[in-house]
Amino acid sequence: xxxxxxxxxxxxxxxxxxxxxxxxxxxxxxxxxxxxxxxxxxxxxxxxxxxxxxxxxxxxxxxxxxxxxxxxxxxxxxxxxxxxxxxxxxxxxxxxxxxxxxxxxxxxxxxxxxxxxxxxxxxxxxxxxxxxxxxxxxxxxxxxxxxxxxxxxxxxxxxxxxxxxxxxxxxxxxxxxxxxxxxxxxxxxxxxxxxxxxxxxxxxxxxxxxxxxxxxxxxxxxxxxxxxxxxxxxxxxxxxxxxxxxxxxxxxxxxxxxxxxxxxxxxxxxxxxxxxxxxxxxxxxxxxxxxxxxxxxxxxxxxxxxxxxxxxxxxxxxxxxxxxxxxxxxxxxxxxxxxxxxxxxxxxxxxxxxxxxxxxxxxxxxxxxxxxxxxxxxxxxxxxxxxxxxxxxxxxxxxxxxxxxxxxxxxxxxxxxxxxxxxxxxxxxxxxxxxxxxxxxxxxxxxxxxxxxxxxxxxxxxxxxxxxxxxxxxxxxxxxxxxxxxxxxxxxxxxxxxxxxxxxxxxxxxxxxxxxxxxxxxxxxxxxxxxxxxxxxxxxxxxxxxxxxxxxxxxxxxxxxxxxxxxx
Amino acid sequence: xxxxxxxxxxxxxxxxxxxxxxxxxxxxxxxxxxxxxxxxxxxxxxxxxxxxxxxxxxxxxxxxxxxxxxxxxxxxxxxxxxxxxxxxxxxxxxxxxxxxxxxxxxxxxxxxxxxxxxxxxxxxxxxxxxxxxxxxxxxxxxxxxxxxxxxxxxxxxxxxxxxxxxxxxxxxxxxxxxxxxxxxxxxxxxxxxxxxxxxxxxxxxxxxxxxxxxxxxxxxxxxxxxxxxxxxxxxxxxxxxxxxxxxxxxxxxxxxxxxxxxxxxxxxxxxxxxxxxxxxxxxxxxxxxxxxxxxxxxxxxxxxxxxxxxxxxxxxxxxxxxxxxxxxxxxxxxxxxxxxxxxxxxxxxxxxx
Amino acid sequence: xxxxxxxxxxxxxxxxxxxxxxxxxxxxxxxxxxxxxxxxxxxxxxxxxxxxxxxxxxxxxxxxxxxxxxxxxxxxxxxxxxxxxxxxxxxxxxxxxxxxxxxxxxxxxxxxxxxxxxxxxxxxxxxxxxxxxxxxxxxxxxxxxxxxxxxxxxxxxxxxxxxxxxxxxxxxxxxxxxxxxxxxxxxxxxxxxxxxxxxxxxxxxxxxxxxxxxxxxxxxxxxxxxxxxxxxxxxxxxxxxxxxxxxxxxxxxxxxxxxxxxxxxxxxx
Lengths: 568, 353, 269
Known about the structure:
The complex is a heterotrimer.
Chain A: H1 3-20, H2 23-27, H3 31-50, H4 57-87, H5 101-108, H6 112-116, H7 122-154, H8 157-181, H9 193-214, H10 219-238, H11 241-266, H12 275-289, H13 295-304, H14 315-337, H15 342-362, H16 364-367, H17 386-389, H18 396-419, H19 422-432, H20 434-439, H21 444-470, H22 480-493, H23 498-514, H24 522-536, H25 545-554
Helix pairs in contact in A: 1-3, 1-4, 3-7, 4-5, 4-7, 8-9, 8-10, 9-10, 9-11, 9-23, 10-18, 11-18, 11-21, 11-22, 11-23, 12-14, 12-15, 12-21, 14-21, 18-21, 19-21, 22-23
Chain B: H1 2-11, H2 15-38, H3 45-76, H4 83-103, H5 111-141, H6 150-171, E1 176-177, E2 187-190, E3 193-196, H7 197-219, H8 221-231, H9 233-238, H10 243-269, E4 271-272, H11 278-290, H12 296-317, H13 324-338, H14 349-352
Chain C: E1 3-14, E2 17-28, E3 32-36, H1 43-50, E4 58-63, E5 66-67, H2 73-79, E6 81-83, H3 96-103, H4 112-117, H5 120-140, H6 155-167, E7 173-177, H7 185-202, E8 205-209, H8 213-219, E9 222-227, E10 230-235, H9 237-241, H10 244-255, H11 257-268
Parallel strand pairs in C: 3-8, 3-9, 6-7, 7-8
Antiparallel strand pairs in C: 1-2, 1-4, 4-5, 9-10
C-alpha cells in the first residue's frame, strides 16, 4: 500500500474516532471547516515524517493531495452510510451512542431535519471531499514551507538570541495581562472569561519555567527567578475564587509530585500507592480539626469532658501531627516492602494504597465511612481569617493557593538540597546499581527508608492542605487515580526535575479544568496526550540534567525533529 | 565508627528467621480468627462448598486475564496496565454479538444452535480483544521498547484511561446488560449445593482455554519462539526468531484469552460497562504476581487462590464482604513479603537481577 | 609482617555446584597478592564472599582481627575493604567526580538536616570531599576529567575510575577484579604502575584477580591459584609458575582429560 494512501487511512481512522465520540455535533455548524483544519494539522505532522525529508515540494504536494483525497472520500462514504441509515429510520444509537442525526448533520453542514428526511444534497458530500483534500494540501504546503527555510531562518544566532529574550519576557507580559489588564469578554467554545484567564494563568506559570531555563546561571537567573517568584506570589491576590481553587490544587499536586519524585525519581522505587500518605495526612488533619461525627468518639470525648463539636487543633497545631503520622505510615510501609524489587514494589504499594482507602471507607467508627468528614476547619494567620488579615484582598481559596505555593517552594528547596548532598548521590547510586552502591558503602535499608519517609512526609503535608481546601473529605477523594496523577505528572514534566514537576502539574491538573467546557472529552484528550507524550518525549517536557544526558546519548537517531530547550 | 558497627552486629536478628516468625504469627492469628469467628457462625458445609465453587469460577476468569499479564511481562518486562480494558472491550463486543444473536432468535432455538451461538459470541469477543491488543501494542508500546521502564507503564496507564473513556463516549453511559439464554440460566442441584450452569461452563471453558495455551507454548514452534524471546530477546533475534512477530503474537494470545474472559465475566456479572475491566484487571495482575510473574502455571494457580480467598475469606474471617478487596491486597502484600518472587517464583528472575 | 586478611576453610555452594571449596588464604599487610585460576575457578565468587555479596556457607573470614562473616557489604566497606568489578559497574549517569564522591559516602558525617540548611560544617565537608575526589582522580591519572559522565570515558579509563571510586572509602585492602582485562599494552602498563603506587604511596594492600600472566608475574609478591573452587597452590610467583598442578590446571584439557572427567563424576555423586 502506498504510504500516502496509508496516511489517508490513518487520518480517516482518526476523524472517524472524532465522529464516533460526537465531536462534530458538539461543535455545531462550523464542524466541517474546524475538522478540516484539525485534519490539516494531522497531515502536516504525518507527512513531515513520511515524506518531508525528501525535500521535493512537488512530491510533497502530490502526497498531500492523495492522502487528503483518500480521507475525504472515506469520510464522505461514512457520512453517506450513516445519513442513509438514519434517513430510513434505522436507530444506531443503541449501539453507537453519538451517531445521531444532529452529529451527522453537523459533519455534513446541513440541518438535522435534512438527515431525518433523507434530503442531503449530493453537493454536501462533494464538499466534504473538497475540504479534506484541501486539508491534505494545506498540510503538505506547511511541510514544504516550514521544512527547510524556516528552520534555517530561526537557527541564525541573532534569531536565537532574540528568541531567548522573547521567551524570557513572555511570562512577564502574560503576568501583566493576568493581573492588571483583565480580559475582554472572549468566548472559546463554551468556556467563559474566567476560564480563559485561568488558562492564561497556567500558561504564564509554565512559560516562567521555560524562561528560567533559558537564563544564564548566576545573577541573570537569580534576578529573573526573584521577579517571577514575586509575580507568582501576587497571583493569589488577583485571581478569583475559582481560578485560585484550581491553582491551589495544581500546587498541592506539585507538593505531592516533589515528594513522589524523591521516591521514584531519586531513589528509583516505583510507588503506585503514594495516595496512602496523602490520605493519612488529610484524614489526620480532618480528624482533629472537624467536629466529630462518629457517635463512638463523641461519647468518648464527652466522657473526658471535651466538647466534641469544636475542633481539637487548628491548622498550624495539627501540622506536625499530620507530618508525623504520614512519616510513620511511610516507614511502616517501607520496612516490609524494601526487599521487593521493581514491579513487585509497584503492585504492593498499589495494594497498600487501596487498603488505606478501603479502611477509610469501612472504618465508619473513625472516619464516618463514605459519608466523609465534614466541616474541616480552615487555616488562619494568628487566629485571623484570610480576608481579615489581608483586608479583603485574599479569598479563602487564594489563601490556600498561597499556602500551597509557599509549601511547594519549601519542599522544592529541601528536595533539591537533599538531592545535592551525599544522600542524593546515594539515592542515584542505589537506583543505578543496588549491589554496587551497597558495596561502595551505602546503607541500603536506611537510604531507602529515608526516601520513603521524606516522600511520605511531603505527601502528608499536601494531604493536610488538601483537606483544608476541600472542607469536606470522602474516601473517594483518595482513589488510585491520585497516585496515578502524581506519577504521571512527574513523568510528563520530566522525572527528577523540580521545574518539570511544576509544569507537569500545570498540564495535568490545571489544563483539564480549563477543558471543563468540553468536559466529556477531558479524560480521553488527557489520556491520548499521555501516550503521545511518552512516545514523543519520554524524558518529559523539562527533563533533569541527568535524564537529558541519557536521552542525548541513547536516542540520537530519533531526536531530530523536536524542539530542544537548551540551558545556558 | 567501629563501635557503631559492633552494636549493629549485636542487634542484628537473622532477617529470614524474623520474617518466618512474623509469618507464622500472622498465620496463627488468621487460623485463630477462622476458628473462633468464622467457624463459630455455624454455616452449613454446603455454604462453604458453594462459596468455594463460586471462588473457583471467579478464579478461572482471573486466570485467563492473569495469563495475559504474565505472557506480556515474561517477554517485555512491562505491566500492560490496559489489559483489563482489553478484556472489557471483549465483553462489550460480546454484548453486541449477544444482542444480534437474540435478534435472530438463536438463543431460543434448539440447544445445538444455542451452543453454536454462544461460541460465536465468545469468538466475536476474542477477535475484538485481539484487534485491540494488537493496535495497543503497535501504537502505544512498540515505539517505547527501548525506553526506561517507567515510560511504557505511563503509556499503558494512558491507554487504559483512553480506552475506558472512549467506550463511555462511543457506547454511552448506560450499562450493557447480558441476558442469559434460558438454556443456561438454571443450575444443577447436588444435595444442598447449587451449581449454576453458567458457573460450570465458565470454569470448564477457562480450563480448556488454559490447556490450549499451555499446548501452544510447550508444544508448537511458535511457543518455542516465544520462550526463546522471553529467555533472551537479542539472542533469539540472532537465531533467526522474528522478535516483533513473536511479541505481536504474545499480545494476540493474551488478548484472546482476555476477550473470552470478558464475555464470560459479562454472563457472570450480567453487566458490562466502561470501567468494568479495571478491578478485575487489577485482581488478575495481583494473581499473576502471586503466582510469580512470568510464570504461566503460577498465574493460573495464583488466580485460583485469589478467587477462592476472595469468595471464602470474608465469611471465614467473619468480616463484611466489602473487605474482600482488602483481603485480596493484604494477601498479596503478605505473600510478597515472605516470598518476594511469588508463590512459584518468577521464571526470569535471573536475567533481571 | 602482620596478617591483614585471613580466610579459613571458606566454602560457597550454588545448588549442587561448589564454587569455592574449603579455601584457606592469608594476606599480609601492604602486600600485592594475585588470585589466578582458569575460568570458572571461583575467583570472583571468593571476592563476593569477602565483600559480603555472598555469605559463605562455612568458614571464617577475619579482617584486621575481626570476623566479617554475616556482615552486609556496606559494613565490610566501612571496615576497610573496597573493590572493583570484572565487568565495569560504574554509576553510569554520574560524572567521574560524583562516582568518587559516592565512594566517600560512608566517610562523610554531616547530617541530612545540615545538608538542607547548608551549614558551614557540611559545606566544608563537601568541599573537602570534592578536593579528595579530585586528588584521587589525579592519583589514578584522570585529572581534569572530573565532569565527564562516567560512561563516556574510554574503557581503560573507566577501570581507573573504578579504582578511584574504591579508594574513596579509604580502604586498607583493595580487591581488584581483573583490572587489566580488555586493556591494550599501554593501558596495562599504566594499571600495573598504579597498583604499585597504591601500595607504595598510599599503603594499600592489594589483592587482585588477573588473567594476564605477565601482569601477575611482574607485580605480585604472592600468588594463590584456584581450580574448581579449590586452592591448588600458593607462594611466590616463580614457585607457582613451575608448580606441576598449576600447569595441569591451565593446560588441563589436553594433558589430563580423564582426571577432569573423574572429578566431574565425583561432583555429581
